[in-house]
Design brief:
30 strands; elongated; Elongation Factor Tu (Ef-tu), domain 3; 3 domains; Jelly Rolls; mainly beta
Length: 388
């Protein structure tokens, strides 16, 4: 039998514990080595207040029908299944994707016109070192732009993102064209004010989305993004154009420019977590370990989840706990750091339950004892999370 355990009038006591089997061995030198025996699980003891017979019967019948430890069922425990954080939005698991190789080397994947590229001139906005590049305008009156062409179905949605910081120039635009270069979407970004000053579509392009998100830990850096269905054809072309005083064609001085790092191209209209690439693109890199990338939260909320809050990916039974407070960024993304590693790989765009979190459990014992005290019944049961 499955179903949801009825709680009747509510619980008197809920003992909740983490079960994380580990074996330790001590070498002759005194060095201690640990080995994990199996995945972490939650266990709980539930005790009801003294129940009337009418309240007791439905609960006890449900427990007996589980046939001891054989069946699994759902338990939504009070208090612990309710988040401390704001927990707003409709969060989804987000895989890491980047269809562009050499994401941190403009000279590796991009061409250009009216510019030159100076590699590795300032610190990147991820703390990894001096790996951000500068594009420097020519001393000719022309478009000053980076150009990159990619095989991609231009009749489907794509999103281009890149990190940018003002140098001597502080305005730039992203253009994404279809294969014929006749339809496109664009947006103009001001890196002094953090604003998008204009945007639009031309021809058969559609579904334009734009964003400029500050990188909080690295002042002056922004992640720029433009999503679009470019038009027709089997290729698309992205261009990044520097502007001066609102003009995209201007006389450069041969020395001024802007800084860029971390270019990314994905399917869809909204950027996912930044994914570094080298010689090969990365498609649908699944999460693992102690971090889960997500999007769909209410944007720019500190404490969207709090340390100790629980959540559950929709496609498996495991309940996870976040190890530290979680903030959503202006692009609705948040990285959840976990207290225990992922034991099953969630699907890309899999929904996440973050309120009234349902545990899939089984009885910890084959017997269920109860006791009459006068006309009332004392009932207690032990459960353990099922990971199947």
């Amino acid at each position: 039998m499955s179903g949801v355990l009825p709680l009747g009038p509510g619980l008197q006591i809920l003992d909740f514990e983490s079960v994380d089997p580990t074996t330790l061995s001590v070498a002759q030198s005194g060095k201690v080595q640990g080995r994990k025996m199996q995945g972490q699980r939650w266990a709980m003891t539930v005790r009801w207040p003294r129940l009337k017979r009418t309240e007791f019967r439905a609960i006890y019948a449900f427990l007996v029908a589980q046939r001891g430890q054989f069946e699994t069922f759902t338990l939504v425990p009070p208090v612990i299944s309710v988040p401390q954080g704001v927990a707003t939005g409709t969060p989804l698991v987000r895989y890491k994707n980047n269809l562009w190789n050499y994401s941190e080397q403009l000279s590796g994947g991009w061409g250009g016109a009216g510019i030159s590229i100076a590699s590795d001139v300032i610190a990147a906005p991820d703390g990894s070192g001096v790996t951000a590049d500068k594009i420097v305008e020519s001393s000719v009156s022309e478009l000053h732009r980076l150009i990159r062409t990619q095989t991609f179905n231009a009749e489907t949605n794509c999103v281009h993102s890149i990190f940018a910081k003002a140098g001597e120039r502080s305005e730039c635009a992203i253009f994404v064209f279809d294969g014929a270069l006749s339809s496109y979407g664009y947006a103009v970004y001001n890196l002094n004010t953090g604003a998008i000053t204009s945007s639009g579509i031309v021809g058969s392009a559609a579904n334009l989305t734009t964003s400029i998100v500050p990188v909080a830990a690295f002042p002056g850096w922004y992640r720029l993004a433009l999503g679009i269905k470019p038009g027709t054809g089997s290729t698309i072309q992205s261009q990044i154009r520097m502007h001066l005083a609102g003009n995209q064609v201007y006389l450069g001085d041969g020395a001024s420019g802007m800084y860029f790092w971390g270019s990314q191209l994905e399917s869809g209209l909204y950027p996912g977590p930044y994914t570094k690439t080298e010689a090969s693109a990365i498609t649908a890199e699944a999460p693992s370990g102690l971090a889960l990338h997500t999007d769909g939260w209410t944007p720019s909320v500190n404490g969207i989840l709090k340390a100790g809050d629980l959540f559950k990916p929709a496609g498996n039974n495991k309940i996870y706990m976040v190890s530290s407070d979680v903030n959503s960024d202006a692009g609705s993304m948040a990285t959840l750091l976990l207290t225990s590693p992922l034991v099953a790989t969630p699907a890309d765009n899999e929904a996440i339950t973050k309120t009234a979190v349902p545990f899939t459990v089984r009885m910890l014992k084959d017997s269920i004892r109860y006791r009459y005290t006068g006309a009332l019944v004392d009932l207690e049961a032990d459960f353990i999370e099922d990971l199947a």
